[in-house]
Design goal:
The protein is α+β, with helices and mostly antiparallel strands and 252 residues long. The chain folds into two domains: 45 residues; 203 residues, no CATH class. The protein is 15% helix and 46% strand. The strands form three sheets. Strands 2, 3, 5, 6, 11, 12, 13 and 15 form an eight-stranded antiparallel sheet that branches. A five-stranded antiparallel sheet has the order 1-8-9-10-14, with no helix packed on it. The two termini are 16 Å apart. 23% of the residues are buried. Pfam families: PEP-CTERM. It comes from Marinobacter adhaerens. Keywords: Signal. This is PEP-CTERM sorting domain-containing protein.
Amino acid sequence: MIKQIVIAGIAASALATATASAAIIDVTSVNGSWTATNPAGVTTSSANGGTNNRISWGDPATGSWWNPGPQSGYQFDSLAPILNIAEETAFDLGTFTHFNFPIYDDGTVLNSATLEIQTQLEIDSVSHSLTSFFNFTHNETPNSSNPCADGGANGSGVNINGCADEVSFNLNAGATDSVSINGTEYFIDLLGFFTNGSLTDTFWTQEDLENTATLRGVITSVTSEVPEPSTFALLGLGLIGLGLRNRKRKQS
C-alpha cells in the first residue's frame, strides 16, 4: 500500500511540475515617438537618447530676446531595460513629462498629438514586440483665469502658480497583445498612465513645473494542462506498477 502511494505521488508531482516553472521575462527596450502633432508648428526633437520623444511649442513668456525662457512641451522617457518581471504585477515602462512653462500663444500651442510606444520583450529568450498608440489632447489654459478650468481657485492647490493645464490620455490601439511560447500563452497589457499611484485619463498639471505620469504594464499567462511526454511516461509507469501489484495480489 505504501509503495502504491509513493508511485502515485511521484506521478502526481510530475504533473504539477509540468506547469509550475516560471518564465524569465525582460523588457529590453521601450521607445516612445511623437507623431500627428496638431498644429503643424509644434516642433519635434530627441532627448535623453530617445527618437522624436520630445515636442515643444509656444513663445516663452520668461527670459529675454537674447536668452529666452523654456517653451512648454511633452517628453517620453524609457525606463528599459526592465529585468526579471514578475507575472501579474504591474511594472513601469516609462515616464511622460509635461513641461508646463509660461508661454504666449504664437499659433503653435499644442491641441493634440499621438504617442507611439514600441516595446521589445524577451520571454525565456524568445523575442516579441508590441506597438501601441496613445492619443493626447491638450488644453493650454489662461494662467490668470479665476476660477480656473478645473473649477478651482487661482493661487491654490494645483493652481498655485496660475491655472493648471489639462492633459488627456486616450488609448487608441495596440494596448494588448499575446504570444504563445512552449505551450504557454502570455498576455502583455499596457495599462495606461498613472499619477499619484492611480490610473488616469486626465492629468491637471501645475504651471511653471515639470509634471510627470508613469506608463505601466502587466504580463499574465495561461499554461496548457496537457503534460509533457516525459510526464505521461512517468505516470504510465506508475499505473503499470499499480496494475502489476494488483495482479500479483489476485494470483496469491
